[in-house]
TrEMBL record:
Residues 258-413 form the Four-carbon acid sugar kinase nucleotide binding domain. Residues 3-232 form the Four-carbon acid sugar kinase N-terminal domain. This is 3-oxo-tetronate kinase. It comes from Pseudorhizobium endolithicum. The keyword Acetylation does not apply. GO terms for molecular function: kinase activity.
Length: 423
């Protein structure tokens, strides 16, 4: 294993696994596997990039640091030369959140400083300019992310947001330095290290900027960012003859299908609206879930009775509805109840023979993937930017798409089911 990634949620892990497996056009990517939590056993020998999916974005800082360090140790034991800490391209975290503390703890453990922190993912509209994060043409705090159910993002200046979480000062390398090339980026990062700035927000607006940053950090032990930061990394190893460039695995799994959407993000709500016009779809009554009158069995029987027609169940709601439920039942309680519901539903679905499963939302996907107990998922072809097809191998293979809330085209659900079946 050459590159080891510690991802703070499940869909984020799939996202960066997709980038590593895809690589750059004409160059190829790395043979990549996504692990659900820190594996107990050694990785298979042909794995070139290992991505450990944690569920550490919204847990206590202490636990997030502990789990991330465990993951780092396992990855180093597998031979990794480079560790990447993957967080959300919209920098999802609270002011007391985990990006800063985990980044600093990994840097201390690896004895490094002046470490890149860059959430840019231009393919999904996320760019960093003058230390500010944009989603398409909007500042982060005006992009809809200010209404996120778990971590409302209310400041687009991610230097300032990160500084709320870190022990030390945060550095910044602007786009001018990035455009002057790898050597300039390297010297700017070294300067930050000399000033004892452990984490350094680096501007990036295009994929080319990210490739340039990738070249600048070819020999760095630690890199942090969104999936975009990995665009240039496979090439460093392929060019040196250390990786073969074989990348994503082609597979197809046909059979009964289901879609579960727990994300309330704008893109998912659009996908739900579009899909439910033409396919059997069941909205989840959140109050019913909270009083115990809506159960997993209700969701399962709906989905199983409509297989063949791409059935969907969803809790996705508008920001106003989410706020009303949270005010009535408590933010954590309602999230836990829904995550549990989706997890149990997924277990029952797979037991009943579902072979293709599409899940929308990072927390929701985490709950589902943990409940299904898959240890390792092979990375297949990209469905939409940031979302690969995943394969849980075994006697009865199950193909999955774990979609970040804000990812995917409006017709994502249908497209994902087709891609999983190799169509
Ligand atoms: N109707 C609802 N009311 C309140 N909370 C909800 C509702 N539907 C879902 N939730 C909770 O909101 C959270 C949504 O987070 P999730 O990570 O799944 O989606 P997301 O944040 O859009 O995706 P990502 O993290 O990939 O960007 C989950 O914990 C889920 O249980
Ligand atoms: O980086 C992103 O936007 C996604 O991979 C993600 O982490 C959303 O949960």
């Amino acid at each position: 294993m050459l590159i080891g990634v510690i991802a703070d949620d499940f869909t984020g892990a799939s996202d960066i696994a997709n980038t590593l497996a895809k690589g750059l056009p004409g160059q190829g990517g790395l043979r990549t596997v996504q692990y659900l939590g820190v594996p107990k056993e050694a990785a298979a020998r042909n794995v070139e990039a290992g991505v450990i999916a944690l569920k550490s974005r919204s847990i206590s800082t202490e636990l997030a640091v502990e789990q991330s360090l465990d993951a780092m140790h396992w990855l180093l034991e597998q031979g990794c030369q480079q560790i990447v800490f993957k967080y959300c391209s919209t920098f999802d975290s609270t002011p007391g959140g985990n990006i800063g503390p985990v980044g600093e703890a990994l840097a201390t453990a690896l004895g490094v400083s002046g470490v890149v922190a860059c959430p840019a993912f231009p393919g999904a509209g996320r760019t960093v300019y003058q230390g500010h994060l944009f989603v398409n043409d909007r500042l982060l705090n005006e992009s809809g992310l200010q209404n996120h159910p778990l971590n409302p993002m209310t400041d687009a200046d991610i230097r300032r947001w990160l500084r709320l979480q870190t022990a030390g000062e945060v550095g910044h390398v602007g786009i001018d330095a990035v455009r002057r090339g790898p050597a300039k980026i390297g010297s700017a990062l070294r300067q930050c290290a000399e000033e004892r700035r452990v984490l350094v927000i680096v501007d990036a607006i295009t994929d080319e900027d990210l490739v340039t940053i990738g070249r600048a950090v070819a020999d760095d032990r630690l890199i942090t960012g969104g999936s975009g930061i990995a665009i240039g990394l496979p090439g460093n190893f392929i060019e040196r003859g250390l990786a073969k460039g074989t990348g994503a695995v082609d597979f197809s799994v046909d059979g009964p299908e289901a879609i579960l959407a727990g994300s309330c993000s704008g893109a998912t709500r659009g996908q739900v609206e579009r899909h439910s016009m033409l396919h059997p779809s069941l909205p989840i009554d959140v109050a019913g879930v909270m009083d115990g009158s809506v159960k997993a069995a209700d969701l399962t029987s709906f989905l199983l009775s409509h297989t063949g027609n791409a059935p969907l169940v969803y809790s996705s709601s508008t920001p106003e509805e989410v706020q009303a439920s949270q005010a009535r039942f408590g933010r954590e309680k309602v999230a836990a109840a829904l995550d549990d519901l989706f997890a149990t539903t997924a277990q029952e679905l797979v037991k009943s023979g579902i072979r293709r499963l599409v899940v929308a939302g990072g927390e929701t996907s985490g709950a589902v993937a943990s409940a299904l107990g898959y240890n390792a998922l092979t990375i297949g072809r990209e469905i939409d930017p940031g979302v690969p097809a995943l394969l849980a191998e075994g006697e009865r293979p199950v193909a999955l798409a774990l979609k970040s809330g804000n990812f995917g085209a409006p017709d994502f659900f249908k497209k994902a089911l087709q891609r999983l079946a190799g169509r």
